[in-house]
Structures are given as structure tokens and as C-alpha cells.
Design goal:
Elements lengths: L13 H31 L3 H10 L7 H14 L5 H15 L7 H18 L3 H22 L2 H14 L9 H20 L2 H21 L1 H15 L8 H8 L8
Helix pairs in contact: 2-3, 3-4, 4-5, 5-6, 6-7, 6-8, 7-8, 8-9, 9-10, 10-11
Length: about 260
């Protein structure tokens, strides 16, 4: 253990100042080496796949989505196609591309994300995995619709989410999330077309999300419950407002 240093007293000689500086430098270098050794030991305890994903995804921690994207693309190229590791890296790349990047680069990023998720849908045969891929693709299309406003994207998103629901077993944690995304998509189409049926169906979908999520996905319920009340306050759905309000503020808990 290196000796502690203190702030030099007034009138310290140049030799004393140099000694304090050198001791501080040595202490800094020793701590850096200790941190490197600790990191190497930690990385050695995880699988090669996890280590690659961690180091590749790390640039996102300091907000460099572009560097993370390039590292993930390289990992996709160098990982055997069709393996579980390859699928995981592709999914990481799609998530990275969904993260907002430079303003003028948003359309190409989300287009690439949509292509990745389309491929994932085509490769999946197991029902729940297919539902996950359908939900991911629908979410990417919704993001592109919100950016570009192409009605075809929100319409396809609704179709994909409705296809996904039969593949999800009752009580699965994915079910409330799909219902919530369906509510968002239906509301988006309502805003574009003014269809009363879309507004009613969006309200029904967000209600299903809130009720189903209580036991299996409370985060989805928490996120969706304000939207349920918002839908219920539309003139066409005033009859639902009381139930939605009671859900958000159970008896004995005052509204905030």
C-alpha cells in the first residue's frame, strides 16, 4: 500500500513537491492496474459470448450509438450465422438502432432495424419466440411511423400484433406488452384516420394490458394505466372513466 500524500505545506521545497507528485502518480498507476486486473478477473468468469456482447455494447454506456452499431455489425459478420449467439447479437444491434442517433441519420437506422426484425420473424418457428419477434418488428414499425408518418407502417404494426397474440400462452409476461403496443398503434391510426372503432379498440387494448399486467408484468400496467384513463375520458367512452379512475386510485388512496 502506497503512503498517503497530503497537500504541500507553504514553503515546501522543489524536492518535496516532486516527491509528492511522484507518489501521487505511483498511487494513480497502481490503482489503474488494480482496476484492470479486477476487470480481467470479472470478464474471465463470464462466457465468451457474454464477454463479447458486453464489450461490444459498452459504447452505449457513454452515448456513442454509432460506435456501438459498428462493433455490433462486425460481431454479426464474424459470428456463425444461425447460432444463438448470432441471433442475440442481431437483436442487440436492432435495439441499438432503435436508440435515437444523430437527427439526420434516424431514417437509415430505423430502416435497418426493421430489416433485422423482419428476418427474425421469418426464422422463428417456436410460437413464443415468433410472438416476441412479431412484437419487436411491430414496435420498430411504430417508431418509423412516428418519425415518418407512413400509414402503411402503423397498419402493418396492428396486423403483426394481432398475429402475435394467439402465440402467447395465457398469463405470459409478454401478453400485456403486446396489448399495450396494440393500443399505441390503434391510437396512432385513429389520429391519422379519425376512425371511432380504432379509438374504442385502443381503449379496450390498454384496459386488457392494465388488468393482465397486474400479476405478470407490473411495469407494463404502470406504464399503460394513465393511457387507460385518457382513453376513458374521450366523450365516446365516458362510461369507462369511473373504472379507469378507480383502477388508478383504489379506494382509500387519494389521487395525486
Amino acid at each position: 500500500r502506497l503512503p498517503a500524500t497530503s497537500w504541500p505545506a507553504d514553503g515546501a521545497s522543489p524536492a518535496e513537491l516532486a516527491g509528492i507528485r511522484d507518489a501521487a502518480r505511483e498511487r494513480f498507476v497502481e490503482r489503474m492496474h488494480r482496476a484492470e486486473r479486477t476487470l480481467e478477473e470479472a470478464l474471465a468468469e463470464i462466457s465468451p459470448e457474454q464477454r463479447t456482447r458486453l464489450l461490444t455494447y459498452a459504447p452505449l454506456l457513454w452515448g456513442d450509438e454509432e460506435e456501438a452499431s459498428e462493433l455490433l455489425r462486425e460481431a454479426v459478420r464474424t459470428t456463425p450465422a444461425g447460432t444463438a449467439a448470432w441471433e442475440n447479437i442481431l437483436n442487440d444491434l436492432a435495439i441499438c438502432l432503435m436508440t435515437p442517433g444523430p437527427e439526420d441519420d434516424t431514417p437509415p437506422r430505423i430502416d435497418e432495424c426493421v430489416r433485422i426484425y423482419r428476418g427474425a420473424v421469418q426464422r422463428q418457428s417456436e410460437p413464443v419466440e415468433r410472438a416476441i419477434s412479431l412484437n419487436n418488428l411491430a414496435r420498430a414499425l411504430l417508431t418509423r411511423y412516428q418519425d415518418a408518418g407512413a400509414l402503411a407502417d402503423v397498419q402493418e404494426s396492428i396486423e403483426l400484433l394481432r398475429r402475435a397474440l394467439p402465440d402467447v400462452p395465457d398469463g405470459h409476461r409478454l401478453e400485456p406488452t403486446i396489448w399495450h403496443n396494440l393500443a399505441i398503434a390503434l391510437e396512432g391510426r385513429y389520429m391519422a384516420t379519425g376512425s371511432p372503432a380504432d379509438l374504442q379498440n385502443a381503449g379496450d387494448a390498454v384496459e386488457r394490458c392494465c388488468l393482465l399486467g397486474l400479476g405478470v408484468a407490473p411495469g407494463a400496467t404502470l406504464e399503460a394505466s394513465p393511457a387507460w384513463l385518457s382513453h376513458a375520458l374521450e366523450p365516446s367512452a365516458w362510461g369507462d372513466a369511473g373504472r379507469a379512475s378507480e383502477f388508478g386510485h383504489p379506494a382509500g388512496s387519494p389521487p395525486r
